Amino acid sequence: MYVEERMYLLQVGKAPEYFKQYEAEGMRVQLKHLPHMVGYYVTEAGVQNLVTHMWAYDDLLQREKCRAAMSADPEWQAYIPKIRSLIISQETRIHQCAPFFVERLKKMLAAVR
Fold first, then answer.
1. What is the pLDDT of residues 22-55, one digit of tens each?
2. What is the CATH number of the domain that holds 94?
3. Is 27 exposed, middle or buried (0-12, 13-18, 19+ CB in 10 A)?
4. C-alpha span between 24 and 46 (Å, rounded)
């Protein structure tokens, strides 16, 4: 399994606006296309105004297909311009689960279905 970690550095003071837009529009579209939201966070200490969200995939092909479908969705295309100006930078990391963690992650994901 793989976990994608996406980090957005937001303009100072723009986190409430970002979260409002995400809750109203972005989350629904993502949950329609992406299989497993692992978490959605904002920093409390360290780099400020950093939003991190994580998504689990069975494999990289699943990630590619899911993200392509989401990118093609007109609702997603309408949402992106609403948050783009709030974001200073973006970073993405893809993590492969350690062998001993795969079953634990699967159980965690099954518990939230």
1. 999 999 999 999 989 999 999 999 999 999 999 9
2. 3.30.70.100
3. middle
4. 28
Sign of CA dihedral 85, 30, 46, 3: negative
Does the pTM exceed 0.70?
yes
Beta bridge partners of 93: 5
Strands 50-57 and 87-96: unpaired
Q: How many domains does the chain have?
A: 1
**Token pair recorded at residue 45:** 């200490």
d(C-alpha 32, C-alpha 30), whole Å = 5
* Structure tokens belonging to residue 94: 């893809």
